[in-house]
Amino acid sequence: MLFVGVDWAEDHHDVCVMAEDGRILAKRRVPDNVAGIGDLHGLVAEHADDDESVVVGIEIDRGLVVWSLLAAGYEVYAINPMASARYRDRHATSGAKSDPGDAKVLADLVRTDRHNHRPIAGDSDLAEGVKLLARAHQSAIWGRQRQLNALRSSLREYYPGALDAFGTDLANTDALAVLAVAPTPELGRGLSRSKIASALRKGGRQRYVERRAEEIQEALRAEQLEAPELITKAHGLVTHSALALITTFNAQIAELEAALSEHFEQHPDAKVVLSLPGLGTVLGARVLGEFGDDRTRFSGPKSRKNYAGTSPVTKTSGHSRVVLARYARNRHLGNACEQWAFCALTHSPGARGYYDQLRARGKTHRQALRQLANRLVGILHVCLERGVLYDEPVAWSENSELAA
User: Fold this and answer.
1) In this structure, are 31 and 102 located in the same domain?
2) Domain boundary among 216, 238, 261
3) What does the CA dihedral 275, 278, 280, 282 come to, rounded to 10 degrees?
4) One domain, residues 199 and 324
5) How many folded domains does the chain comprise?
6) Exposed (0-12), middle (13-18) or buried (19+): which is 133, by Cβ within 10 Å?
7) Do 244 and 298 share a domain, yes or no?
8) Could you tell me if residue 122 is inside a domain?
9) Digits of tens for pLDDT over the chain (404 positions)?
10) How distant is the alpha carbon of residue 189 from its chain centre?
11) Sheet containing 54-58, strands listed edge to edge, beginning at the edge strand earlier in sequence
12) Same-domain pairing of 83 and 162
């Protein structure tokens, strides 16, 4: 068996090839291009027999370099940078660090401690595509929300009438349409009811246009405090820019959501995922994409729960015992699971009853929601392993192994 450490960088990679007894067989720096990856495979081939297994340690879990290593048939471990840093400290107290040294650390780590780490799973291309689209969709939503938060903060400083007219829902098409033609209080006061109605129709409103236009006009013309003229104009320019960004985000979110739905519905696990309460197309795609579809990735429900970050972390020492939330986790998956648990409260009597029991035992809303998400992840694991759809009575029966 041969062990290889690859210290990844943007323009080059340091490679260390190590034998089973810890001897360093070769070291090399290769560029990040086709020729460099060819040199990496050639270096490994020089020291590996035809039937010899090759184990690779690298600090990323995706990308062209990783895919080329997997395509070559190597067993690849994605090592958390924090874990490799702690491993380095175990063997060196000087604090020295270098790229070739990090490659050696990774090779040594997979040689001696790979049983404590998870190899990169062989997810299908479709599952990987769903994950990429789901992450892009979620990132676009987060980006839009940042712009909305900034817009709300800006309006509070110079244009309180707009907040009175539209409330906190500035993502609404009514708000975007009217603010686009009246980004300052002066322009807002000058809008006639017919112009407001025209903007509302242009934004997509079809019902109660005249009544809504009257309400908006009244709010915009109400007496309010005003900032100095120059500052108001500057704020108006900022608002115009924010509206353009939010409109672009809206268009991209819709486009990504359509592509995400198309990819997700093609996956064979989609029916199982959608059968669980609280999971629709978008949220189900996020959950499926982050978990992947490699059946060998998780040894059981507990392993999937740990990967999701829903299971707690217990710290014990002597007579002390503390149970804490798991904060070192996949943020995308953890966010999706918590949202899933919240949505399940209104779609599953079993989930609602379990949540109410936890609240009665003194759990906070977040704690109960996290524990409910942990239970749902276990149910999902068994459904996927058996290829069966979710069944409410079976999932929430007291003796059901789905709750394991």
Assistant:
1) yes
2) 261
3) -130
4) no
5) 3
6) buried
7) no
8) no
9) 899 999 988 889 999 999 999 999 999 999 999 999 999 999 999 888 877 789 999 998 888 888 889 888 899 999 988 888 888 888 777 777 888 999 999 999 999 999 888 888 778 889 999 999 999 999 999 999 999 999 999 999 999 999 999 987 888 899 999 999 999 999 999 999 999 999 999 988 999 999 999 999 999 999 988 899 999 999 999 999 999 999 999 999 999 999 999 999 999 999 999 999 999 999 999 999 999 998 888 888 998 998 888 888 888 877 778 877 777 778 889 899 999 999 999 999 999 999 999 999 999 999 999 999 999 999 999 999 999 999 999 999 865 555 44
10) 43
11) 24-31, 12-18, 2-8, 54-58, 75-78
12) no
Q: For residue 330, which of 295, 358, 289 has the smallest C-alpha distance?
A: 289
Q: Tell me how far apart the alpha carbons of residues 378 and 281 are, in angstroms, rounded to a whole number.
A: 20
CB 401 within 8 A of CB 382: yes
Tell me, yes or no, whether 251 lies in a domain. Answer: yes
Angle at 87 (CA atoms; ends 66, 65), nearest 5 degrees: 10
- Alpha carbons 156 and 215: distance in angstroms, whole number: 19
- The helix/strand/coil state of 55 is strand
On whether the CB atoms of residues 334 and 310 are closer than 8 A, the answer is yes
Domain holding 158, by residue range, is 129-261
- At 290, which amino acid appears? E
Find the CATH number of the domain harbouring 79.
Answer: 3.30.420.40
Q: Report DSSP letters for 7-31, one per residue.
A: EE-SSEEEEEEE-TTS-EEEEEEEE
3-state secondary structure 189-255: HCCCHHHHHHHHHHHCCCCCHHHHHHHHHHHHCCCCCCCCHHHHHHHHHHHHHHHHHHHHHHHHHHH
Q: What pTM does this model have?
A: 0.82
Q: What is the DSSP letter of 119?
A: B
Q: Is residue 124 part of a domain?
A: no
Structure tokens, 77: 């471990």
Is residue 121 included in any domain, yes or no? no
Which residue's structure tokens are 């399940």?
Answer: 344
Measured CA to CA in angstroms, residue 2 lies from 22, 67, 71, 382 at distances of 10, 19, 17, 36
